[in-house]
Amino acid sequence: MPRRTAHSLTTSEKLLAFFGGTFDPIHYGHLKPVAALAAQAGFDQVILLPNNVPPHRPQPEATPQQRLHMAKLAVADNALFSVDPRELAVETPSYTIETLATLRKEHGDKCPLAFIIGQDSLLTLHKWHRWGSLLDFCHIVVMARPGYQEQLDTPELQKWYDAHRVNDADALKQKPAGFIYQANTPLLDISATEIRERRHAGLDCSDLLPSAVERYIESQGLYRE
């Protein structure tokens, strides 16, 4: 059997990862850990999915158009990232399972797809709409967050997690879906809430988010009381 090179990889072997969030605003706490995660897990591309109406969170301060623009500005010079606006076009709550089903149909049955979540989301995953079907459409890659418990909230969720967890990121390219990978990616202690509060207080946020995003926030008068 001939030795395979990077140039012989087929489209189905590329690992696409999706990262959803309100991004109100997008900041380094989103971007830097995910970039490190991409290197660790072998993502070929990370697609940002800004949420329009998050089912489990307060409504964003910035408009969908503003949050989309900020996401595009944040990754404009980074070929790893792109932005998918599909959830912003839906006026009803954005359910991850429905978006993943659509993405799977678009990318076909063989392409490995991954969905990135934080440790906090893993702990409450049993509250998500049709959570037990998520792995039918993708892999789940979990970014550990400092201070969160490792034991999951329900025996059913723990059993599901233990049954699908893999320790080798290379496994994510061997199947199109079905695995859970826990990443050891250092996270930045930055939150959009902190940025909004600092903006409300008139404090500097230049160390927390890309300069292009900061300039846009200023030009739009966002997060000012």
UniProtKB/TrEMBL annotation:
NCBIfam families documented for this protein? cyt_tran_rel, nicotinate (nicotinamide) nucleotide adenylyltransferase, PRK00071.1-1, PRK00071.1-3
Gene3D superfamilies referenced in this protein's UniProt entry, alphabetically: HUPs
Q: Identify the metabolic or biological route this protein is part of.
A: Cofactor biosynthesis; NAD(+) biosynthesis; deamido-NAD(+) from nicotinate D-ribonucleotide: step 1/1
Query: Which purpose does this protein serve, as stated in its record?
Result: Catalyzes the reversible adenylation of nicotinate mononucleotide (NaMN) to nicotinic acid adenine dinucleotide (NaAD).
GO molecular-function terms, A-Z: ATP binding; nicotinate-nucleotide adenylyltransferase activity
- The Cytidyltransferase-like domain extends over 18-198
Q: Mind telling me what this protein is named?
A: Probable nicotinate-nucleotide adenylyltransferase
Q: Could you confirm whether the keyword rRNA processing appears in this record?
A: no
Listed under catalytic activity are: nicotinate beta-D-ribonucleotide + ATP + H(+) = deamido-NAD(+) + diphosphate
Q: Which organism is it from?
A: Rahnella aquatilis (strain ATCC 33071 / DSM 4594 / JCM 1683 / NBRC 105701 / NCIMB 13365 / CIP 78.65)
Under InterPro entries, the record lists:
Cyt_trans-like, NadD/NMNAT, Rossmann-like_a/b/a_fold
EC number(s) reported in the record: 2.7.7.18
The organism's lineage is:
Bacteria, Pseudomonadati, Pseudomonadota, Gammaproteobacteria, Enterobacterales
